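Working notes for the structural subgroup meeting. M.R. asked for a predicted model of this chain before we commit to crystallization trials. I am recording the input and output together here so anyone reviewing the notebook later can reproduce the run.

Input as submitted:
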Amino acid sequence: GDFVDTAERLFNSQDELVEMYRNHKQGNHLAKNEKSDLENLFTDMHQYVTENENWKAPRNVLTIMTDDMGWSDIGFHDSTFVTPTSDFLADKGTKLDSFYVQCTCSPTRASALTGRAVTETGLQDGAIIPGESRALPADLPTAGEYFKEEGYATYLIGKWHLGGRFLSETPNARGYDYFFGLLNGAIDYYEKDIGLKCGSAEDNFMPVFANNCEFINGYDLQENGVPYVEETEKYVTDMFADKAVDAIRSHDPSQPMLMTFHPTGPHTPMQTTPEMFDICEGVSDGTDLMIQPHFRQQICAMVASVDLAMLRMLLALASKRMLANTLIVFHSDNGGFQQAGSVNAPFRSQKGSMFEGGVHVPAFMFGNGLHFGSAIKPVRTDLMHVSDVLPTLLGYAGIAAPARSNFDGYNNWPRLSAGLPLQRSHIPLNSASENVGYYSAYIQTIFGTTWKYLLNPSVITFVATSRLGEEYVPEGEMLFNLSEDPSETNNLVEDTSLQTVAVLNLLRARTMYLQKTSVPSQLTNGFPPEVNTPPSPLGCWLPLDSPYYGTVLCPVPTPVYPDMQTIFADGEYNQYITSNLDL
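Returned structure, recorded in token form:
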């Protein structure tokens, strides 16, 4: 009862929680050999959850997918980062240390929400660009649809990025009772337009944006299909938290809940709140930084805001006595963007690449069913792919997979909850079309050794970050023994040992088979995709058939691309590093 009362008081007290984060980071309690107020809160929370777990109560689900979070952009991989909530959940739950995703946004989201391999969605050639025609196929049901059919109330808050030219492609039409967020891949955290800061193509990290910047710039924040033009000065991560908390507080606890929380942090543009930016002072610079150390502080602050949003949701759930029967799954959608200050070390490369830095991300599970029994493992090194999330959540909820699901992912729930080895031994990570140089990757564990085959793994990275006039040089085939070489430094494709040659031939054959059997890519006219659908005439990103398309006026700021030399002048925290890398 005491913890529930505390949760009731704190869930909407953001200023007090921010001060708790600040005091925890400063560490004054350590000199007194005491716990911080935040640590005491987590101790009480864990005790409450373990004492009140109830399998007869509705089994709630909370999934959290961060955006462009690198392997070392979180406290349990870099202790200078300010993510106490994530650290607590990972420590008391199960870390998933071999969790793989696709290397860009839309493909991961498609796989996560359908339980299908990305090669079954037609999105294997990369993320959806604002104003183009690709979308999640209508014949692939989403998590929202599966859970809604079983009586769940379904919420999606944050980033969709799976289409939106027509109402039939939006979250409300794809199984979600409530949607608050953006249709495209990113927005300005304050002004809520899609964040394109216009300038010459030579000054822009992605020519497709420079060439179409003013054409596709528009306001992209809505609530159930209606442009949300209130609170236009508020930081959008905090707005996502507010709406999630409101949804939880108004929810009937007797009905099971699926809360899908997809914030945009720490995706570009690099913007923070001043409070979190200050709290992250002194963060580690990490390694492989390609721009200024200030960017690392910004990444920390953006992630800290997401972490605070998570704490507010946990407290709201506790205030409704729902937390103890909620399972939480957390992961990033892809690796971090190094030019923005993300660190993927010890892994190679970044978002957009099929190297480990683009696809091997922080992940954990916490909650109902993962607290008791010595068999439950605190750290998992078994292979797990984002397509496993939906089947696993249905297994947790006691929902039999419908015949039409045809999942590629595995239901890992029985094995996770019993501490048994997971059943996945291979990950057909991607097999793209000729549009992007057959950009492919395949992972397989053979007799205890995990191998990875790659074909032209940096095509998308090159397109996203190159300047005009540069020419991509195909990298060809690569083979790595991840068990011995997780940083992918030793390409074994020329190794003549019998074992290595056999593995190479096997994974090459599997990749070629995947290319032949994949659903055709929706990207029919080459890469980058054709951009032909602007926002509404009144500045709003809305489906063409929305009743609000030509009736609601949205605020769209004048696009201005800042001079790179002025960034961070006077310690400014609200700046851009590039135009929005919308992958």
